[in-house]
């Protein structure tokens, strides 16, 4: 085993910074969490990204994603050190559980050629991979290297230690890697990479990883990124799939700030920000989306979408909303629900209002085929200011529903409370509670609550954290009465 130890020592030696002689700042696909647009880069830059999705009740699923990357650039040396962790479970059973730690250091011999060393750790419990260590040295070349486009290819010997399906193995390997990056402008770029590490003595025993993504710079600190990763193991554990696919969308944040644009004043079609607390007449619409995907040994899908619209005139206001959630883990649907609502109010003396509305709800997991609730309500604004509103309303309604294959129609009473608060120019909070009660049966009631916190990134874009709860006190047979979800995602304001 002297040869692997010698190779490992050589890798560690090459990871040390080499003497500087010429300034160089090449791109790297693993710097996808950052955007480089100023004349001089800091030595170190640290970025991170996170995503979360939770559902409790009849649907029990959790989805987490964490990523971090530190990059180093000085003279003819560059390096990166990063990690990503993805986890999801359905009804207590893990469907995704993977951890990857990676690092590489390169020294540029001239403007295009570089030598370096790399190391990586991979763990995937769902694929029965306890660990895989890869380390080695590499020789690379940049075919294109300018401010907009970078394309490189590298190769070199390595060594691999792995424990898969309770079997340990170690062997010489070969590393082939290719990276590509293109900037369309100072705010938008795409990247792509492939890494192939076959066993030197058996080229059919190989691990292939490909990534591609798009990134949009939003502010000095925030960036929106969507990435697709494909992994292929030609010799997987027994009864495991060879390929895995992971799709993620989320926000990344730079501890040191992304690079500022070189132009401070530019032509733009983006509208200017409104004054804090200004209530806009006419139509206002917000659409939010969050999603994640894992396919292969890890099978999970989560999709959430919502649209909220409001139309305001001096004496009239109309509200429309739609929320849809779907998730699938291990081939089993763990969430599938749709909720819509429309309401129109006639306002008197700015504080009193009379209105009518119609609500619709469907939840396949809770065995709710449909629930219609037309209603007529009278309400009052306890607070109605530019930056804060609080209203209550109540009135008669009719409920028509089909739960657990049984249909029922009954007279009901609907009561609701709404609260909005523009905490600051960048932070907005809203909360809504609705109760539907059957006067003939005190045990038959439905309670729903929603809350969301928007952090403005631009005048038209926000990062949203949303929570929702539904309690049906008389659920379908073998179903739970309470369901709750916690999600994060992007909200677009029109």
Task: Please provide a written account of the structure.
By secondary structure, this protein is mainly beta. It has two domains: 253 residues, Beta Barrel (Porin); 205 residues, Porin (Beta Barrel), CATH 2.40.160. The protein is built from one helix and 24 strands. The protein has a 24-stranded antiparallel β-sheet that branches. A hairpin with a 3-residue loop joins strand 6 and strand 7.
Secondary structure topology:
Layout: H1 2-14, E1 44-56, E2 61-74, E3 77-90, E4 93-108, E5 113-124, E6 129-145, E7 149-164, E8 167-183, E9 188-199, E10 202-217, E11 222-233, E12 243-254, E13 282-295, E14 300-312, E15 316-329, E16 332-348, E17 352-363, E18 368-384, E19 388-403, E20 406-422, E21 427-437, E22 445-458, E23 461-472, E24 482-493
Summarize the structure.
The chain has 494 residues and is mainly beta. The protein contains one helix and 24 strands.
